[in-house]
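Researcher: Next sequence.
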Amino acid sequence: MTSPVVHLSRLARWGTTLARRRALVGIENDPNAPTPVRRLVKLARWATFTGKRGTRDYSGAFQAIGPAAIKLGQSLATRPDLVGEEAASNLLSLQDSLPPVPFKEIEASMASSFAQPLDTLFSEIDPEPVGAASIAQVHRAVTSDGRQVAVKVLRPGIREKFARDIQTYEWAAAHVEAMGGEATRLRPRLTIANFKRWTNSELDLRREAASASELAEQMSGVGGYRIPAIDWDRTNGRVLTVEWVDGIKISKRDELVAKGHDLEEIAERLVISFLTQAISAGFFHADMHQGNLFVEDDGTIVAIDFGIMGRIDRRARQWLAEILYGLTTGDYQRVAEIHFEAQYVPSYHSVGEFATALRAVGEPMRGKPVSELSVGQMLDGLFAITRDFDMQTQPHLLLLQKTMVMVEGIATQLNPDINMWDTAAPYVRSWIRDELGPEAALADRLKEDTETLLRLPGLIRRLEEKFPPKGGAPEPPPLPEIRLMTDRSGGTGGGWLRYLVAGLAGAGTLWALMTLGWLG
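Model: Next structure:
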């Protein structure tokens, strides 16, 4: 186990890096931050001779600390309630890119992971990577059977580095949460636990391949959106091989226009594809930034990089759909009721007061031009009222919120006049009708009752095993209760010790009488 001294030295090193770029000033100025934390960040700023005034470079600070910090920064971009709106907005621009590892090291790592020469699997691998991120880098290659593929390879030693850094994140989060108050409500330990789960998934490329395969199945019926095929024979925990995608990055608007693509249609399809994943399937691509989406010549959107995925159970999806629909229609009372049903808001608060707070967030945006409406602004407003109503963090919704903001940003870049609410409303309305309407309720009840009935035979068998039927022998008569010498329960007859003493005393008396000749 890592010692506190090691954790403190790491935190001190990271803290000074953050302080030099004024990335801790927000915490220092936040009256809700625990007092010991505010003192420590103030000390870090003084130690680096940095003033409060000036640009706060959050993304640059995390980039300077290293790979694990880059990923943590991207995760914290979903937590404006924890790091503040300014920091969260800045961290959204955090570029997950690092200088590439020399190809000789990559080649050796690949050969070691496959336990065979690479020329048996690939006829050609381009030594220049097409992308180099904090966890892995990607090379273009040709398989031994002539197919164009992209090969993603983990950076050597990256798993061990992440494990070390995450231990310190966990240690620091536990100490901050133990300070109580606002730190407890924001649940930093849970934030780090989810971060650890996401990164562990990213650091096992077989799991990323499995996520891509699962999402491909879920989206197989959605036209104009696809997932590259996985080459399972050339994939393991450290290497992921997928088909090569020939397309234009969705961020390159001018090139898309030059190709004759309908940008409005692509933007709408992107939004619907995301809603299909999140609401219908409950399994969504949670890293949908511009670098991970391509448009092929026929207009098909192709997604890549499935290291971070979100999952929502069916009940939470129903709540989510009703919340989105309620916000689009102005039914704040129903949105408030859902928050209480889902136990997002403690029951000692008033539903009516929460509905009024929601109205204060939603109404200023109603009736405004399309260009001024934003899902991101609406969600930021919702975060702003969480403190007043003691709402604890919901990690699955935070990941969803981050992805919604990403999708909205890309869709707006493609079509500045798109309205996420108008685009989403018909889909959400249709899903609610199909999943929450009378027919759906009846079907769910029939399914649930049928499953209950089918479980009855097993339940009866278990009861019979616990209470077996009587055999063929007659019922035995009642027997008198006899207290045994070994009975330790005591009571009116004493315990076994009393019987032993009495027996010894009786035997001694009998021997004495026989010695005196009184017993012939």
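Model: The two ends are 81 Å apart (CA to CA). The chain is about 55% helix and 10% strand.
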